[in-house]
Amino acid sequence: MVVDLLAEDDDALLQQPGRQLVVDHEERSLGGVGAHDPTVRHPGTSPKAVLPQADPLSAGRDAGGPAEIGCRARGPVAQTVPVTTTPTVRPLTADDLEQSVALGIEAFGAIPDGMPRPTREGFPGPGRLWWGAFDGERLAGRMLRREYHSWWHGQELPTSGIAGVAVSPEERGRGLLRELFRAVLDASVERGDVVSTLYPTAPGIYRSSGYEVVTTLQTVEVPTAELTRVRPPVGVRTRRATAADLPAARALYDVWARAQNGPLTRRGPSFPATDEDVIGDFTGVTLAVDESDAVVGYCSWNRGRGYGPEGRIEVQDLLATTAEGYRALWRLLGSFASVAVRVTVQTSGDDLARSVLPTLSWTAIESHPYMLRLLDVPAAFTALPARARGTVVLRVHQDAVSGTDGSYRLTASEDGVTCERTDPEGDHPTFTPGGLALLWSGAQTCANVRMAGLLTGGTAEDDAVLDAVCAGRPLHVRDYF
């Protein structure tokens, strides 16, 4: 998560690079977990409220989370002096940890009680690379790149997850964020990342760096008593999962995630948890199984505190590949109606889990927009499946931090899509980086991107080809970083 501490008005947000802080938590999910860190966002609370609790199966939890926040000050926090020279941007090392912690305290405040102090030995953590902007020896800004893969158009694409951003107050508006993005995204392209994503609290800051909101991660609340009215499943029952069941649950997640645009693959260095770790992080992981004992759904849940009006069940993943699987899982959650009046579920988009509910009760209590930008335009379009036929030349302009500006020839055929740089003349569809992210992700059509002022030029025929090529999958996310 990126928490932005900036000017209040939108115009200022658009003009100032600002200062941000991430509350990261390690990836304890069906795909694995990072190094242990007891900081996990409590569903339904403010993004700034970080409570110790079991790690979510779906919401990411970063290694060394306290280093992102800072730590409880022991002595004076380092004084900040405005940058007076061109900053030096480089990867952070363990020698920079104390300055990074101080910057985190300055932006976010003291680390909550019960969280361990960050150590040099745990820095930077698996799948993570910190970058800093220095004025001489003084750290004036920082940014974290997370190593991920995510599902887009049926393909696993290398993904640069941006988090942990903080800039000292005196440097707001001085261009440090832009310099950090240039360095971090250059490193991401060198690694082979095709897209970059982040969770902002002020999207306007990141639009100038080519990002645009394509979906939203939400926590929703459903009255537990209403779940008792879900129709009983036919041929499906529930049982408690053990560590031996985790491979089957991961396989079900893969089936679901591959059919969407946006979900992390939950593989790689950011997800190194063992099956035992994952099971131990929840009150329960419940499977929905059919008559042959094949897994057709699962939910990972924690029993919140209390059994009165404040009692609740907190669900991190609720996924199924059949309607009967969803019914079985909802009814299991409804069985808590006498002791927990609410169920909270982490979700996004138009969740199919809702299709079997008998009432309209589905209240969003927390929302986190998810932003995307393309880093490698040819690779991003080449990943698209064959959905249409035609050739379009498109242009990208106003990319201030990465090298996507220029013209591209896109050819769609029955064999798939090819995309390569070109240098044509004439009137062609011209996208801002954010406009291209909206189209490519399937979040918006060319017509809507034009209405937003993020696409000009080209013809109706160009728009038809681009719409057909980029359509096809709903947008969903489940992991918060």
From TrEMBL:
Residues 87-232 form the N-acetyltransferase domain. GO terms for biological process: aminoglycoside antibiotic catabolic process. InterPro entries: Acetyltransf_17, Acetyltransferase_Eis, Acyl_CoA_acyltransferase, Eis_dom, GNAT_dom, SCP2_sterol-bd_dom_sf. Residues 30-54 are annotated as: Disordered. GO terms for molecular function: aminoglycoside N-acetyltransferase activity. PANTHER family: N-ACETYLTRANSFERASE EIS (PTHR37817:SF1). This is N-acetyltransferase domain-containing protein. It comes from Nocardioides silvaticus.
